[in-house]
Amino acid sequence: MALRSKFLALFLIHICLLLSLCLAADPFVSYDFEVSYITASPLGVPQQVIAINGKFPGPTINVTTNNNVAINIKNKLDENLLMHWSGIQQRRSSWQDGVLGTNCPIPPKWNWTYQFQVKDQIGSFFYFPTLHMQRASGGFGSFVINNRAIIPIPFDTPHGDIVILIGDWYKRNHTALRKALDAGKDLGMPDGVLINGKGPYQYNTTLVPDGIDYETIEVQPGKTYRIRVHNVGTSTSLNFRIQNHNLLLAESEGSYTVQQNYTSLDIHVGQSYSFLVTMDQNASTDYYIVASARFVNESQWKRVTGVAILHYTNSKGKAKGPLPEAPNDEFDKTFSMNQARSIRWNVSASGARPNPQGSFRYGSINVTDVYVLKNKPLVTINGKRRATLSGISFVNPTTPIRLADQFKVKGAYKLDFPETPLTGPPKMATSVINGTYRGFMEVILQNNDTKMHSYHLSGYAVFVVGMDYGEWTENSRGTYNKWDGIARSTVQAYPGAWTAILVSLDNVGVWNLRTENLDSWYLGQETYIRIVNPEETNKTELPIPDNALFCGELSKLQKPEDISFAASITGNRSKLLFMLLMAVCALMSVFG
Ligand SMILES: *[C@@H]1O[C@H](CO)[C@@H](O)[C@H](O)[C@H]1NC(C)=O
Ligand SMILES: *[C@@H]1O[C@H](CO)[C@@H](O)[C@H](O)[C@H]1NC(C)=O
Ligand SMILES: *[C@@H]1O[C@H](CO)[C@@H](O)[C@H](O)[C@H]1NC(C)=O
Ligand SMILES: *[C@@H]1O[C@H](CO)[C@@H](O)[C@H](O)[C@H]1NC(C)=O
Ligand SMILES: *[C@@H]1O[C@H](CO)[C@@H](O)[C@H](O)[C@H]1NC(C)=O
Ligand SMILES: *[C@@H]1O[C@H](CO)[C@@H](O)[C@H](O)[C@H]1NC(C)=O
Ligand SMILES: *[C@@H]1O[C@H](CO)[C@@H](O)[C@H](O)[C@H]1NC(C)=O
Ligand SMILES: *[C@@H]1O[C@H](CO)[C@@H](O)[C@H](O)[C@H]1NC(C)=O
Ligand SMILES: *[C@@H]1O[C@H](CO)[C@@H](O)[C@H](O)[C@H]1NC(C)=O
Ligand SMILES: *[C@@H]1O[C@H](CO)[C@@H](O)[C@H](O)[C@H]1NC(C)=O
Ligand SMILES: *[C@@H]1O[C@H](CO)[C@@H](O)[C@H](O)[C@H]1NC(C)=O
Ligand SMILES: *[C@@H]1O[C@H](CO)[C@@H](O)[C@H](O)[C@H]1NC(C)=O
């Protein structure tokens, strides 16, 4: 018996060595995330926030194109958890996307390992928990994918890489916010804007109370840094700026942009940008870093402003004076939209692969499917306040969509999402878009609400080809940018305006299309696009992972022993070996 397990161990070690040799080109990177509540006082009042490994915000995931990433999540919250990798395309594997329509949740006290390859992607993304409004309490962090060394980036290597997470923030936790929404109330004005989980620097003693811990970013004079900014907030569009410094825009959610200077840039909920910032000032003082609410009554929202400090190592004093001004465009609603239109793709730069980004000539591909999605103000359905998209308020399936397909569970959802908004009364439904594999879809996001929204599609980068005020018509196509529209995963739709995107449906799976505004998302403003390859092949989608969780109609398939914390398996060697083998198999399947 002992001999046999020794042989088995040797055999496994050999397999591992062999595999690690053949996998040498695409290294395996792993992270352990323990998700729990901690007490923090970002706005001066103690509250429970969601931390990762005791940190709020969570650590940066920093990997290189084509790395195989494993993230073992230990759920120490008192509720279910799913972690989402926003903007990470999860090629061929919506099994790893961390949203309720595709994955069963990780129950409290359980752990689960996400495993995916960051295939052919570079850029700035972030992760966050998707259930129960949890993002409003934290659990987020930056997700950086670097270029492979052999593929040059379209600028000089920066002196350093800095992550800045900005977002509106409530002193109430996600449970309390959820209760408000369940009771049919609005969330109301946020209590502040956090920068890297910290409250504002006391730039004004009337507006900012004493004793708030603020973020300080230390830099060396004369050097250029890449600053990655993510709006991880609940629902507020933020204007980002650094006093006296130009922001040279370089990348947005995985696309290198045409490099242009901005004194400030509007960053909508869920969006990410990289700026190159040269520390070219004289360091007579520190400088303010500001994230302030956009499209709101400024005199009422003054308190809701994030302020951090840019500190040169040779700085001679504290930041002083008023904050740098936000765009003064109260009477010019096209200013922000024109800025958005000015963000363009650098067609000659290489992205993750050596060929230029623009070699995918999206402008010459024929559209196969058109969907006009309409966002309207909240409605009441069956006595409940709900958010809709095209008249449908999404109800999450009890059995996740792709899992239902795999195990032939009937009636989990309907592939009947309408191409144009419903004209009848709004309804609640598990209604999903029937995507055409290898189709080229045009989606119009018509925002008929009075609030800004941003929309995110999982699994893909979409081409942002147009936006304008008023109602979209077929004639609007004449204004599309068919050459250097930016490719990204999260796009804004201005109130009373439309945004048009194009997407090449080449990634098999079921992918979430949602508003990033947490309140509307929670109230049902989302759907999924289901893309299946009609051809019977296992090449276009990875098999269901060995550790897949089961729920809903399939909950009887869930084996309790599949889920165990480290404590219960250490000291049990054969189980450990088994786990190792499982990991190896999962790895092999990534390359299958
Ligand atoms: C959230 O806040 C409520 C009310 O303040 C409190 O009772 C509850 O314990 C908090 N929940 C968490 C998970 O922090
Ligand atoms: C749970 O975590 C342990 C290590 O802490 C790991 O070995 C095991 O694979 C994890 N279980 C799952 C289902 O991911
Ligand atoms: C676009 O990318 C090219 C190739 O890397 C680079 O040389 C050029 O400076 C970039 N152009 C702009 C305007 O950013
Ligand atoms: C990622 O890691 C590299 C070294 O491997 C480092 O140079 C870079 O600054 C890191 N980026 C971030 C955002 O942490
Ligand atoms: C601080 O803010 C208050 C309220 O907006 C304003 O009246 C006051 O002038 C500000 N103080 C300074 C020193 O700017
Ligand atoms: C951007 O501004 C910096 C000064 O902050 C300047 O050196 C640089 O040439 C500008 N770049 C472009 C592309 O305008
Ligand atoms: C440094 O720059 C500030 C702002 O541009 C200017 O007011 C100040 O006179 C400069 N100080 C020195 C020592 O050059
Ligand atoms: C903004 O709020 C202030 C203070 O509540 C109010 O006096 C003012 O009329 C508001 N401005 C607009 C344009 O609504
Ligand atoms: C697109 O459609 C037009 C007209 O229907 C057709 O002539 C053309 O060949 C198509 N282009 C491609 C790339 O399929
Ligand atoms: C979904 O679309 C495919 C074509 O892409 C079609 O064959 C199929 O019948 C459609 N399914 C439903 C339920 O409409
Ligand atoms: C919403 O749509 C209605 C009907 O088309 C239109 O009258 C109204 O101006 C729109 N409002 C916004 C904010 O788009
Ligand atoms: C995929 O299909 C091929 C041919 O049908 C088969 O040989 C192979 O084992 C399958 N691979 C996986 C990972 O299921």
Automatic annotation (TrEMBL):
Topology relative to the membrane: Lipid-anchor; GPI-anchor
Subcellular localization(s) per the UniProt record: Cell membrane
Domain Plastocyanin-like: start-end pairs: 35-148, 161-314, 399-535
GO annotation, cellular component aspect: plasma membrane; side of membrane
Source taxonomy: Eukaryota, Viridiplantae, Streptophyta, Embryophyta, Tracheophyta
Family under the similarity heading: Belongs to the multicopper oxidase family.
Cofactor(s) needed by this chain: Cu cation
Domain of life: Eukaryota
Phosphoprotein found in the keyword field: no
InterPro entries named in the record: Cu-oxidase-like_N (IPR011707), Cu-oxidase_2nd (IPR001117), Cu-oxidase_C (IPR011706), Cu-oxidase_fam (IPR045087), Cupredoxin (IPR008972), CuRO_1_AAO-like (IPR034273)
Keyword terms: Cell membrane, Copper, Glycoprotein, GPI-anchor, Lipoprotein, Membrane, Metal-binding, Signal
Gene Ontology MF: a single term: copper ion binding
Signal peptide annotation: 1-24
Keyword Signal: yes
Chief location: membrane
Protein name: Monocopper oxidase-like protein SKU5
Organism, scientific name: Populus trichocarpa
SUPFAM superfamilies membership: Cupredoxins
